[in-house]
């Protein structure tokens, strides 16, 4: 077996000057070049089975190493130490010394100089220090402290071995300082200084020589800064005689794992996933918070030395496997944390008559570069431009006390004016004023009925032309939406606005019948309108051809069913008088016109009533034939226009507590692709775009990324019940760059320039994060790509963070790309299964495919199930595939309980049930039969129908009377159309029950009446002394030497670490006995008592006779199954801690693949199934070595009595 790809917690980070970032992930060291755009330039597996916990480049006194052609660095983790050499430009990593294996854990390493060269001082976990020669792997000196306690952290200071000082954080919650080089070889060093104060163990230490400060991060959620004086300098003194604690910093919500110091700054990161920047001169308060990782916390922190006036780099590595970098300016500080949010707001100093009521911003990314338009309760419109306010337009009495406003941005004229804004203002009496911002006098008055204008909306027109036109929609009384096509023209006399009236739209009658959002679809099959109303409904309208004119069979125009062209009037700002709109005697005329307009209004052809709840739809947009809608129910829905109208494909929820969504913003890259498609005359591929959500979380305005599960922007504005406007910066959406302008307490406020976004200013995402917590299950969905070098393996994973992640892994390079994150589950996901669907482009017999259609079922806590249709499409290049997610159905056992109104007054008798395992019993064209193992002791059979979009519970059995842990199925096609389907279930008592499901699952897909009666097991197989965690089944059918029957191989693994195999014979009977046509009997049974050193958690049959297994002992084993016993074929150490799930599948030729999940994910390649174990394997492009590497053992067996031959599993020191 060979390691192909790895996603694991980032446990080590270190900057090499300002040029490179060194990262440690498992045993793999990766070098990122920081020139221009950061990228990975070298990678190599260096510590065999140990996890990297520290990287120490060799210092170069004087010039800082800037002229060195090669850089030496030492990497350590666990009990391993290795010297490496990085070539010029960081393109090559080579070993410069042997892999040294110590007899104790290495906590810190420091370079020191000696007479014969440079050496390494290693701080050990039992409060001892080693002096090593890294080139020869030779032990030069060993010293220990008289206080031989266990250390959780250590720090070594000094330039020579004689001056070295070791600072250790003990299990007794205190710091001890001692000098390892000042004692004789046979003596133990005394403790020079002792620093008590922490109430928890110390995880991290940092020393700043310029100030003599020592910082410590602890389990008690605090950071302490001590004044200790000069440590590691020449002489026998160990700093100040009486060190004092200068300040205690509290700000983290969980344990603090790391601390770094710079002049005037303290950096800390911890389990809460936040990196806090503390300003010492401001009283030690948090001036900025950097967040970029999911649940699980920050596992590595690095701060560069800075210089050149560009500030410092701050890098964090998370438990989710992600790497983030921020550029921190020395003189600028962001706005999040402490009182920063209020300081980030700027009062634009509105100066006008009356109070501001509505605000719109037109520009690119910031109010200082664009224009802010404000309307007041006096019916006036003001413009903020270049730092000052001026009056644009003054309305009459009909615009006072109430008016609604919206601004459309169109392309400008010439190089000086790149864009122009068209403002529309609606009144209480149905009058609209439309005017350009640059020439308010060239306005145009329109009429939208005789009643109140509830809302004014602009919609972009077709993409052709100069983009100087748009559609104006005004929602009037009785659900009537008046429309105009507005164009802006440049003439000799100036700008001219032309408005062409269109047939109105009629909304579905309801209590809140007015328009809130609309989008125009210019599709080849016809023009469409998708509108959202205040009641939460989405409506689809078909535009009449040429405003009511149809084309007859002979191609001539026919206007018999529409409004004639003679009745349509073209309004123009140069010839329309105000008296013709609002003069005396016009009310009756407009009432008659409104009645005639209602008769000719366009009715909705499709409606989704109350789709977004009762609070309204806030946004709808279109991208490549897909629609995206948002509402105040906290959901974004992805839709398409199908044969029957609007169809919901899937629902994406925002973060918890973010119930008010206002907009959906697409990523700039997707917008560029959409524009290229339009320019080429294409119609789009239906590929779902990556988007972010914009809305309100309590009193905060939030920009939320559903894929990374993080906030991109957060502004304290007071909530959404106010007028506001947000303008994203072009190209900066993914970094949260944009500007917010809002009205609060009669003032117009704006956020600071978002080149300093609150949490991600100047940030780079070097690697996307994965699940922040443990991954409990993994399922292979298929492979995309023709050639091996561009093939992507598509996987689905479910974790404890309640998210379902779809990702693509490129086996040749180890690249991992997250395709989609689904957050529909309310508890952890325990089981996944997939069913391949054929759509005409897919062949089930091929490995490399261009597209896949998969039905994915997920199950987990709170007895919740979800079914999705996944459309996986490859692009024929090295780019990762795309994945369209369509929600099919969902189900919970306690749905009826959730719908009870007075459930808070009643006691729920049934405990919370968890689905532990799921298996497919039968797959037909109409439905899929699923068997689920439940924690309440039941085995349940469900049917999920894609056509009816629902789950149906067929039967349940409580035979086990205890928690059912695992479930599996097998199917056998016999002679004379005999089809046998068996179900295997195992519980915590160690027994396996066999169920005959042949009468339920049938080729026709019909459910027999007998399925309603609960069956009983036909065979009980005792296998383990405790719980059975995993089952695997294979069948040898007719023609394999079993007469008129077959043989079933049942493999199980349990908490006792035992691997059990039972061979079950199956014989067909001529007569039906007790309702069964087959008879099962255990032929033989054998087991391997110590298959793993920990509970066996997952099993999978890779091919007939070949089995893969895994366990928290971090071994992945291949077993050969035979009728006489089970033998081990191969074993490989996995870098995934707490392994919980496994999947395996066949690849090309004799290749196979195994993926393991737990605290991360690792893809393994099975190249030679006759391999005998951990032999030296080839090195792939990433330098991942597939075999055991020779190492030099360093240490004294007298001092360390335990001399383990096998390395300790790479469990993080900071695990709970």
Explain what this protein looks like in three dimensions.
It is found in: Cytoplasm. Belongs to the WD repeat WDR6 family. It comes from Umbra pygmaea (Eastern mudminnow). Keywords: Cytoplasm, Repeat, tRNA processing, WD repeat. The strands form 22 sheets. Strands 6, 7, 8, 9, 10 and 89 form a six-stranded mixed beta sheet that branches. Strands 39-40-41-42-48 form a five-stranded antiparallel beta sheet, with no helix packed on it. The protein is mostly beta strands. 3% of the residues lie in helices and 51% in strands. The protein has five helices and 89 strands. The chain starts with a strand and ends in a 23-residue tail after the last strand.
Describe this protein with a few key phrases.
single chain, six-stranded mixed β-sheet, 1216 residues, 89 strands, 5 helices, mainly beta, 51% strand
Shape: flat
Distance between the termini: 31 Å
Helix proportion range = under 10%
Low-confidence stretches: 331-343, 547-568, 575-580, 676-684, 754-761, 840-848, 1005-1011, 1170-1188, 1196-1216
According to DSSP, the number of beta strands is 89
Which structural category do the helix and sheet elements fall into? mainly beta
On the 0-100 scale, what is the average pLDDT? Answer: 82
Oligomer: single chain
The number of helical elements comes to: 5
Radius of gyration: 35 Å
DSSP strand content = over 45%
How can the largest sheet be summarized?
A: 6 strands, mixed
């Amino acid at each position: 077996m060979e390691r192909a790809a790895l996603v694991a917690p980032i446990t080590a980070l270190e900057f090499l000057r300002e040029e490179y970032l060194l990262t440690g992930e498992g045993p793999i060291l990766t070098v990122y070049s920081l020139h221009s755009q950061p990228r990975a330039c070298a990678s190599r597996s260096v510590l065999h089975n140990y996890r990297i916990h520290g990287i120490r480049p060799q210092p170069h006194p004087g010039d800082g190493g800037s002229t060195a052609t090669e850089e030496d660095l030492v990497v350590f983790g666990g009990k391993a130490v290795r010297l490496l050499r990085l070539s010029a430009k960081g393109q090559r990593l080579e070993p410069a010394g042997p892999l040294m294996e110590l007899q104790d854990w290495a906590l810190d390493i420091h370079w020191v100089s000696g007479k014969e060269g440079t050496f390494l001082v290693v701080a050990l976990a039992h409060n001892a220090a080693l002096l090593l020669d890294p080139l020869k792997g030779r032990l030069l000196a060993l010293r220990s402290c008289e206080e031989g306690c266990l250390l959780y952290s250590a720090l070594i200071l000094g330039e020579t071995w004689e001056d070295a000082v070791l600072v250790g954080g003990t299990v007794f919650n205190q710091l001890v300082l001692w000098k390892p080089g000042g004692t004789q070889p046979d003596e133990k060093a005394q403790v020079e200084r002792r620093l008590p104060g922490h109430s928890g163990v110390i995880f991290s230490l940092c020393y700043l020589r310029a100030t003599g400060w020592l910082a410590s991060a602890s389990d008690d959620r605090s950071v302490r800064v001590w004044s200790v004086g000069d440590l590691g300098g020449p002489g026998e003194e160990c700093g100040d005689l009486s060190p004092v604690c200068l300040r205690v910093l509290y700000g983290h919500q969980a344990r603090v794992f790391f601390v770094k110091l710079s002049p005037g700054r303290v950096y800390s990161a911890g389990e809460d996933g936040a990196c806090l920047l503390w300003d010492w001169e401001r009283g030690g308060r948090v001036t900025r918070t950097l967040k970029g990782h999911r649940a699980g916390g920050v596992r590595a922190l690095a701060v560069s030395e800075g210089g050149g006036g560009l500030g410092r780099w701050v890098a964090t590595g998370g438990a989710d496997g992600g790497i983030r970098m921020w550029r921190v300016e020395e003189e600028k500080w962001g706005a999040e944390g402490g009182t920063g949010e209020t300081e980030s707001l700027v009062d634009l100093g509105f100066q006008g008559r009356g109070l501001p009521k509505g605000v719109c911003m037109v520009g690119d990314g910031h109010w200082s570069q664009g224009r802010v338009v404000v309307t007041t309760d006096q019916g006036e419109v003001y413009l903020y431009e270049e730092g000052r306010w001026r009056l644009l337009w003054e309305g009459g009495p009909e615009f006072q006390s109430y008016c609604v406003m919206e601004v459309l941005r169109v392309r400008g004229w010439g190089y000086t004016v790149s864009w122009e804004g068209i403002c529309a203002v609606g009144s209480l009496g149905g009058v609209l004023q439309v005017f350009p911002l640059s020439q308010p006098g060239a306005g145009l008055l329109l009429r939208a009925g005789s009643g109140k204008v509830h809302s004014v909306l602009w919609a972009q027109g077709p993409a052709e032309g100069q983009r100087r036109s748009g559609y104006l929609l005004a929602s009037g009384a009785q659900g009537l939406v008046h429309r105009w096509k507005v164009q802006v023209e440049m003439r000799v006399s100036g700008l001219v606005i032309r408005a062409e009236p269109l047939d109105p739209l009629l909304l579905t009658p309801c209590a809140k019948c007015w328009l809130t959002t609309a989008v125009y679809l210019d599709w080849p099959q016809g023009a469409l309108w998708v509108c959202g109303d205040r009641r939460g409904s989405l409506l689809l309208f078909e535009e009449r051809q040429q405003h009511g004119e149809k084309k007859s069979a002979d191609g001539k125009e026919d206007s018999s069913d529409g409004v004639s062209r003679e009745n349509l009037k073209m309004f123009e700002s140069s010839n329309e008088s105000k008296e013709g709109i609002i003069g005396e005697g016009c009310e009756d005329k407009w009432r008659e016109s409104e009645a005639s307009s209602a008769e000719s209004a366009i009715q909705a052809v499709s409606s989704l009533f109350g789709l977004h709840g009762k609070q309204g739809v806030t946004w709808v947009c279109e991208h490549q034939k897909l629609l995206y809608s948002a509402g105040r129910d906290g959901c974004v829905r992805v839709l398409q226009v199908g044969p029957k109208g609007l169809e919901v494909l899937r629902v994406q929820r925002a973060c918890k507590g973010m119930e008010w969504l206002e907009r959906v913003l697409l990523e700039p890259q997707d917008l560029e692709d959409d524009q290229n498609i339009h320019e080429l005359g294409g119609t789009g591929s239906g590929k779902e775009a990556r988007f972010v959500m914009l809305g309100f979380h309590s009193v905060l305005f939030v920009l939320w990324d559903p894929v990374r599960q993080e906030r991109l922007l957060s502004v304290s504005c007071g909530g959404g019940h106010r007028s506001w406007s947000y303008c994203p910066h072009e190209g900066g959406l993914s970094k949260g760059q944009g500007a917010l302008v809002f009205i609060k307490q009669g003032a117009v406020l704006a956020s600071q320039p978002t080149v300093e976004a609150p949490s991600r200013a100047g940030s780079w995402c070097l690697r996307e994060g994965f699940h922040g917590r443990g991954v409990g299950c993994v399922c292979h969905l298929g492979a995309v790509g023709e050639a091996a070098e561009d093939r992507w393996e598509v996987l689905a994973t479910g974790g404890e963070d309640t998210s379902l992640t779809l990702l693509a892994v490129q086996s040749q390079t180890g690249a991992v790309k997250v395709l989609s994150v689904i957050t529909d589950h309310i508890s952890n996901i325990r089981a996944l299964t997939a069913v391949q669907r054929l759509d005409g482009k897919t062949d089930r017999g091929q490995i490399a495919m261009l597209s896949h259609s998969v039905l994915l079922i997920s199950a987990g806590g709170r007895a919740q199930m979800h079914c999705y249709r996944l459309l996986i499409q490859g692009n024929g290049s090295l780019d990762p595939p795309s994945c369209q997610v369509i929600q099919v159905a969902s189900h919970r056992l306690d749905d009826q309980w959730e719908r009870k109104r007075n459930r808070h007054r009643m006691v729920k008798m049934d405990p919370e049930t968890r689905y532990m395992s799921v298996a497919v019993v039968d797959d037909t064209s109409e439905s899929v039969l699923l068997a689920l193992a439940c924690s309440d002791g039941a085995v349940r059979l469900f049917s999920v129908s894609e056509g009816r979009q629902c789950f149906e519970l067929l039967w349940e059995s409580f035979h086990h009377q205890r928690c059912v842990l695992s479930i599996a199925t097998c199917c056998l096609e016999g002679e004379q159309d005999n089809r046998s389907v068996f179900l295997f279930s195992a519980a915590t008592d160690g027994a396996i029950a066999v169920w005959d499901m042949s009468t339920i699952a049938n080729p026709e897909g019909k459910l027999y009446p007998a399925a309603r009666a609960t069956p009983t097991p036909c065979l009980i197989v005792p296998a383990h002394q405790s719980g059975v965690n995993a089952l695997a089944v294979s069948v040898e059918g007719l023609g394999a030497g079993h007469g008129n029957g077959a043989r079933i191989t049942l493999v199980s693994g349990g908490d006792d670490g035992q691997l059990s195999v039972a061979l079950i014979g199956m014989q067909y009977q001529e007569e039906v006995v007790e309702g069964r046509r087959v008879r099962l009997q255990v032929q033989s049974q054998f087991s391997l008592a110590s298959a793993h050193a920990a509970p066996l958690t997952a099993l999978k049959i890779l091919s007939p006779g070949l089995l893969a297994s895994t366990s928290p002992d971090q071994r992945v084993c291949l077993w050969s199954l035979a009728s006489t016993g089970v033998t081990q074929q191969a074993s490989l150490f996995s870098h995934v801690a707490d392994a919980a799930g496994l999947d395996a599948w066949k690849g090309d030729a004799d290749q196979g693949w195994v993926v393991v999940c737990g605290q991360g994910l690792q893809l393994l390649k099975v190249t030679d199934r006759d391999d005998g174990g951990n032999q030296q394997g080839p090195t792939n492009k990433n330098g991942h070595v597939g075999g055991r590497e020779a190492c030099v053992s360093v240490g004294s067996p007298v001092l360390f009595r335990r001399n383990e031959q096998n390395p300790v599993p790479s469990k993080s020191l900071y695990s709970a």
